Amino acid sequence: MTGTWSKRTQAVHGGARRSQYGEMSEAMFLTQGFDYPSAEAAEARFIEAGEDEFIYARYGNPTVAIFEDRMATIEGAEACFATASGMAAVNGALMATVRAGDRVVAARALFGSCLWILEELMPRMGVEVAFVDGTDLDQWRAAVTPGTRAVFFETVSNPTLEVIDTAAVAAIAHAAGAAVIVDNVFATPVFSDAVAKGADLVVYSTTKHVDGQGRCLGGAILGPRATVRGPVETYMKHTGGAISPFNAWVMLKGLETLDLRVRAQAESARTIAGALVADGRLDHVIYPGLATHPQHALFPAGGTVLSVLVPEGQAGAFRLLDGLEIWKISNNLGDAKSIATHPATTTHQRLSEERRATLGITPGLVRLSVGLEDPDDLISDLRSALDSV
Length: 389
Hints:
Layout: H1 7-13, H2 39-47, H3 62-75, E1 79-83, H4 86-95, E2 103-107, H5 112-124, E3 128-132, H6 137-143, E4 148-154, H7 166-175, E5 179-183, H8 188-191, E6 201-205, E7 219-223, H9 225-239, H10 245-279, E8 284-286, E9 305-309, H11 313-322, E10 328-329, E11 339-341, H12 353-359, E12 365-369, H13 375-387
Parallel strand pairs: 2-3, 2-4, 4-5, 5-6, 10-11
Antiparallel strand pairs: 1-7, 6-7, 8-9, 9-12, 11-12
Helix pairs in contact: 1-3, 1-10, 3-10, 10-13, 11-13
């Protein structure tokens, strides 16, 4: 029956393992290593560990395994490897896929640390990287030449909220023999259909919506079992990017309320976006859930994040931020608390001014991650802060 359960049910029950005590809340196996009944058993396990046999926490752990199985079930993937952070997931997915001499094509609109991996780290390792406008399919067709090993993009870009046609890009990539790796944080596992649309590997920063309450770092790489339990697991376990059992347990608790939280946050985001458009004091409101968004048809659910262009550039943006009371100034997203971020001076500050302008990250851009507060209170807080702008 498990295969017929909805994502919401799977998020509560998927991958469950119970000890002899029959605990209701998943057990936290806070252990680095494991005891073997004999030297022969230790030897056998190092040759090939069974499904529920473990060697070392960097390789796997019972609590981590529950989290991985649950994430895979929700996503509709065959397997998952849980990582220490979202960036560990991005790095692991790319490094396990490409090697010196390969070519990678990526969308330009990416989180700052993702850009660093692609622009700085991968070329040092002999990997050729080309960038395209992620929403322009003709640019993908021109760039994804035969011999391209992988394509990489955020399904919804951070922070300008461009939505990429995953199915169309996947078709282009697969025709050239390239793997499709997507960062799916803004879509969330709740609204995700990346696997169904052709993504070969899906990565998440579970720090965001999965935890959802600003507590722990975590990440996940999801995809075919042969890939995840093959090159991905080999790379991750030898380079040390595995999640801790404690953080995996916290993520499991987050998954239980993920569907409820994300749907409520997305509904609030849609309400807030509409209210800000009606207010008329902002230069622009960017939210995929609005019918006016250029890629609305690709992601009508909209997600939990919107971005706004504030008059008077950075000065106006700072006045807005400093005038907020409920919204907190931080650089995270997907939290139960609503967060306002100025990307040009924080998450994307390492980019040149010219590069930020090319990506649409202007001095007046503010990213708003909608939490679980009453949307009327959040709207009132924004309107009050706009008075100072």
